[in-house]
Amino acid sequence: MADRSLESLSLPLEVRARLAELELELSEGDITQKGYEKKRSKLIGAYLPQPPAANGAAAVRCRLQHSEGATRRTLRTSNLGVCDIREAAARERTAPHSTAANRPLFYFRFGVDQALPQERRTPITPSSSSRYHRRRSSGSRDERYRSDVHTEAVQAALAKHKERKMAVPMPSKRRSLVVQTSMDAYTPPDTSSGSEDEGSVQGDSQGTPTSSQGSINMEHWISQAIHGSTTSTTSSSSTQSGGSGAAHRLADVMAQTHIENHSAPPDVTTYTSEHSIQVERPQGSTARVAPKYGNAELMETGDGVPVSSRVSAKIQQLVNTLKRPKRPPLREFFVDDFEELLEVQQPDPNQPKPEGAQMLAMRGEQLGVVTNWPPSLEAALQRWGTISPKAPCLTTMDTNGKPLYILTYGKLWTRSMKVAYNILHKLGTKQEPMVRPGDRVALVFPNNDPAAFMVAFYGCLLAEVVPVPIEVPLTRKDAGSQQIGFLLGSCGVTVALTSDACHKGLPKSPTGEIPQFKGWPKLLWFVTESKHLSKPPRDWFPHIKDANNDTAYIEYKTCKDGSVLGVTVTRIALLTHCQALTQACGYTEAETIVNVLDFKKDVGLWHGILTSVMNMMHVISIPYSLMKVNPLSWIQKVCQYKAKVACVKSRDMHWALVAHRDQRDINLSSLRMLIVADGANPWSISSCDAFLNVFQSKGLRQEVICPCASSPEALTVAIRRPTDDSNQPPGRGVLSMHGLTYGVIRVDSEEKLSVLTVQDVGLVMPGAIMCAVKPDGVPQLCRTDEVGELCVCAMATGTSYYGLSGMTKNTFEVFPMTSSGAPISEYPFIRTGLLGFIGPGGLVFVVGKMDGLMVVSGRRHNADDIVATALAVEPMKFVYRGRIAVFSVSVLHDERIVIVAEQRPDSTEEDSFQWMSRVLQAIDSIHQVGVYCLALVPANTLPKTPLGGIHLSETKQLFLEGALHPCNVLMCPHTCVTNLPKPRQKQPEIGPASVMVGNLVSGKRIAQASGRDLGQIEDNDQARKFLFLSEVLQWRAQTTPDHVLYTLLNCRGTIANSLTCVQLHKRAEKIAVMLMERGHLQDGDHVALVYPPGIDLIAAFYGCLYAGCVPITVRPPHPQNIATTLPTVKMIVEVSRSACLMTTQLICKLLRSREAAAAVDVRTWPPILDTDDLPKKRPPQIYKPSNPDMLAYLDFSVSTTGMLAGVKMSHAATSAFCRSIKLQCELYPSREVAICLDPYCGLGFVLWCLCSVYSGHQSILIPPSELETTPALWLLAVSQYKVRDTFCSYSVMELCTKGLGSQTESLKQRGLDLSRVRTCVVVAEERPRIALTQSFSKLFKDLGLHPRAVSTSFGCRVNLAICLQGTSGPDPTTVYVDMRALRHDRVRLVERGSPHSLPLMESGKILPGVRIIIANPETKGPLGDSHLGEVSHRLSLGW
């Protein structure tokens, strides 16, 4: 193909022919690049209009022209083999103005058809950062999310969204719509014509009608490719570093100018096809797609890096071949990594990035030393209890708002000493006390009894015992109760302190005892009321010492995944924290504080129980039950007691706003500090502002509202100080939500819809140092305009997670580093779990929590922000009491947002879907993120926390398990699942040569295995010289006539019948005579054997072999269910073309009964022979087959789906089968084997009828039907006959497990002993039931059954036995595979307990003479050892 620059030149024909020859020589490697350019310039130099000095510039300009044409072709051809759904996603990703406004929404709804679009949307912001998984404590009530400003923004966004031209109509309840959007909307500018796809290149003047516009667009796309924007829709791209990627891309564009007329030689080292998708290429490389003619492939180095070609293709190809394996690896033998099957997310080039300087650590004011501060909290209690014993310490309220009890400091001191004495001296004995100093005890007190909790808490401190406050377990199935029990168990808690009322309210067993809660350790419940305690002696006094590094208490924390951790707080940290709060809040003696918070943890504990005692303050405790009845109760108590401090949450302020109209006499002028405990939640600002606007006229001052930030690990992180300057407004910022999703602070205007207004939470605590580090990766200091995780270095913090050293190191021992890698301090910092930044003036701002962080496509979204947006859609009119949960689930290796809300009972289905549709639109408009699933559940059905909030982890677990039971669901995965799996290509069938190459090059085995070779096993098997089982039976009847082969047991465990070798032989002869004389059957006729499990079936089978007939064993009809079971018998008889039917006299009468005639016409049965009356004569001769490959018997069975399958078994296969089982299980005449199986098909029939005759061992036959009346029959027989090997079915094992679960002790007294059992094999044609086998092993472990004795076998309809656990083989093993890989026909082994793991137990060992291979079910070709396929089986002697 001639150069495009030469089209305008009038070159002679001989010159053009010479140029074509040069290009051919270059493409075939006969000339170097340098020689080609030299000869080419000599040929066309005379015809160029430029002077010789401008040749270089002309060459460059010519190359750029070629690069433009090559880029055009690349944009058109590089998507071959990539489906349209990926192309649309990639093209939309490159669109510079792709916003939420023009993205269609697709919905899945339960109860309607699913709308499957042809295109899938990819967000404009792909994944660019690794996820950071941190734990999240369960949130509180959701009224804190209420924001009038945000509600107006959401309504404006919805109105704006409604005005736009929607891509799809609103979802309807009755139908589902599919809208096909045009692919052109997502296609980059392309000015190439259709003829260029075939390799022809036209001049610039012959392009599209708007060539000037096209050239501008193409230059734009080329410049984007050079400067790093992702414009190519190729599927092979990866991250790059620095500017090297741009150089590579420029080289790629330039390299397309060299070869145009002929396709490049095939690169034998690049094993890709049109349909391959490469993900391990640098971003500059394009997909290697070879057109029919023209456009040679880019050159690659040995590492696969594209380079600008300076040598010929053949030379470069030779270099690559020397650096790579000589043989191409087979794709079929690759272990596909699951991540490689997904689309690669590209970073958004327009995403905001931090630009500020590196921040500096902020130091709080120095912690002052006051002379009268006590040396410990116990010393403070002693001082106030003796100096001011009548001073009020705590006042509790009843549900009517009246004072219930006043606890003075004197009573607190004396009662705490009493509790301490009884804990140490009255539990256990003097020699062995149950509780020693340093031990952990649980404090279980209800939320309406702070006085009893306070006494018990300080009693533990005086006794130097570590209290662990927990919630009261109301039922055995409380949400999160099992995790609380795990914490108590890990802490070694054996004693639980509780109140008398709480102890009476705990669930009791019928005997009056408190049951052991699920997952809890065994506890001794100790009531701390004074009337139940002994008075300490006068000479006993608690040892009060200065605060040290001993553990003071353990505060529990619920993580994001539902697990519970215990944060240990030392005594010195406890005292220092109280001192810091006293200095920051300006606490003084005898102040009154109103506490609405939970007094067992967090801010309620720190202010209402600890710091108050240090400063001899009076605490008015408002219980949660009173707040539900009277939301204004806390304000009333502030007015009544002239309280100066109140500790509340934003929900309490919101409830007070709702109910304040009923109260007139309100005066809040006494308040100097209103502590907002959840001030770290950015949405608390709306409640603070609204509360101030309403109550400012009631005496409330602006400077009184003091939000604080806290965490269980760092205790109080920051708190706004109360000031006297009312002219100084609090700090607040209006931040862009879009910037926050990238962790960048961008100030925005309040007119924007997607903004977040945050308020400061004050200054750093006294004596502390604070900084912000990057949330993921190395703890590096953030920039000044970057959001990070706040870290604190102080003495007043937690010290560790109890018993978890690894997690402690990651959280409590963090050393922030500068950009150069140097630590900023020699002392460790503690991660607070709060996301925020330090603003001007040292003010701390918090924008979210790490536990609420959801990283979707590389962008960070906070669950609280999503909740606020959802609640702002028709606020409080639809969601029941604002109960809504937002969490993320992992789908295709990325997080997806799920919203679960409780709807009002009076909501209609139409209202529900209208609200859900508006929520999806609002979240898409404001947060630019799609919602994976929005589910509505009935009111009061979500699991609750002890204080009434939603238990987030339990809700998520119910969602993942499918146990949420929603009443309305709206799913729209197409708006959020953007990294869709790449299309799988059908692999070619593998031939013999491929097997060899796969083994050599890929290093992966063919998935094949085999048992021992039957021909190479030397044993003393005399039966090997006989080809037929009938001959083996005759030989045993002559050599060992009195040897017992079969013993049949009845329901009482006694012998009902038995057969020796000669008895079986003689009975078979009589049956053969009857078949020949009465049945008039010939050789090869089929005979149906309809017998119950027993001896008659065996004799009839060998009688058929003696007569030359082909037996078919059929399960007899059930007498009590003839109408259902008899047609199956008739069907097998007809399909097998049986000429005769043999049975017992009882079944013969059943077949001719009136009930049977109603189901099957009696006249259609073949001749029926009754074997209860046999002839006395012997046959003239016993039939001997002429060929071992002749048919021996037919194996018929009916599957659970009703499909009838029959398998032909030859004499040779039957003998080989029996010999294989004999060698595997070591069966000899001296052995006894117990069999409890159905003897009609598969391995059960072989073990019941055939193996004893071939191997000579004695089979103890136990009909499974007898176990329905006597479940212990099988195990008693195994014990009585001292059997070492036994075979059963899953139904038998299940009968024993369920029927004998409570009888193990009585069976042990009856002498049942299973210690001699070596192998207990479950015969089945399914995956091993691990749970059932483990339950069986554990249940009968006390009876001597070794857990490793239980194993399974495996067979199928065609291959009756493939695996069988032998006696000398190793113990069966269990492996765990990844269920996600199984969905892609791959087998990936994982560790036990891994997510998405599936346990698989080994189904025995492969039988001798058996060879299996895993084959592709479609192509029947062999697969690699990591692939999932169909088991193909072959027995060495035929089947």
Shape: globular
Largest sheet: 9 strands, mixed
Q: Which bin fits the share of residues in helices?
A: 25-40%
Q: Report strand %.
A: 15-25%
Number of helices: 38
Unreliable runs: 1-5, 51-144, 165-310, 324-339, 987-1003
Explain the overall architecture:
- The chain is of the alpha/beta class and 1439 residues long.
- It is 30% helix and 18% strand.
- Helix 6 runs antiparallel to helix 7 and helix 26 packs across helix 27.
Give a concise summary.
By secondary structure, this protein is an alpha/beta fold. It has 38 helices and 53 strands. Strands 6-5-14-13-15-16-17-18-21 form a nine-stranded mixed sheet, with helices on both faces.
Distinctive features:
18% strand, 38 helices, 53 strands, 1439 residues, 7-stranded mixed β-sheet, alpha/beta, 9-stranded mixed β-sheet, globular, disordered N terminus
Secondary structure blueprint with pairings:
Layout: H1 13-28, H2 33-44, H3 55-77, H4 84-94, E1 108-109, H5 148-163, H6 211-227, H7 244-254, E2 299-300, E3 306-307, H8 313-323, E4 362-363, H9 377-387, E5 392-397, E6 403-408, H10 409-425, E7 440-444, H11 450-462, E8 466-470, H12 481-491, E9 495-498, H13 500-505, E10 524-527, E11 551-558, E12 564-570, H14 571-585, E13 592-595, H15 602-614, E14 618-621, H16 624-629, H17 633-641, E15 645-648, H18 650-659, E16 673-676, H19 684-695, E17 705-711, E18 715-719, E19 732-736, H20 737-741, E20 755-759, E21 763-764, E22 769-773, E23 788-793, E24 800-801, H21 805-812, E25 830-838, E26 844-849, E27 853-856, E28 859-862, H22 863-872, E29 879-891, E30 894-903, H23 909-927, E31 931-937, H24 952-961, E32 968-971, H25 992-1002, E33 1008-1010, H26 1029-1039, E34 1044-1049, E35 1055-1060, H27 1061-1077, E36 1086-1090, H28 1095-1107, E37 1110-1114, H29 1122-1135, E38 1140-1143, H30 1145-1151, H31 1154-1159, E39 1168-1170, E40 1191-1198, E41 1204-1210, H32 1211-1225, E42 1232-1236, H33 1242-1255, E43 1258-1261, H34 1273-1280, E44 1285-1288, H35 1290-1299, H36 1304-1309, ...
Parallel strand pairs: 5-14, 7-8, 7-9, 9-10, 13-14, 13-15, 15-16, 16-17, 30-31, 34-43, 36-37, 36-38, 38-39, 42-43, 42-44, 44-45, 45-46
Antiparallel strand pairs: 1-32, 2-3, 4-22, 5-6, 11-12, 12-24, 17-18, 18-21, 19-20, 22-23, 23-25, 25-26, 27-28, 29-30, 31-32, 33-52, 34-35, 40-41, 47-51, 48-49, 48-50, 52-53
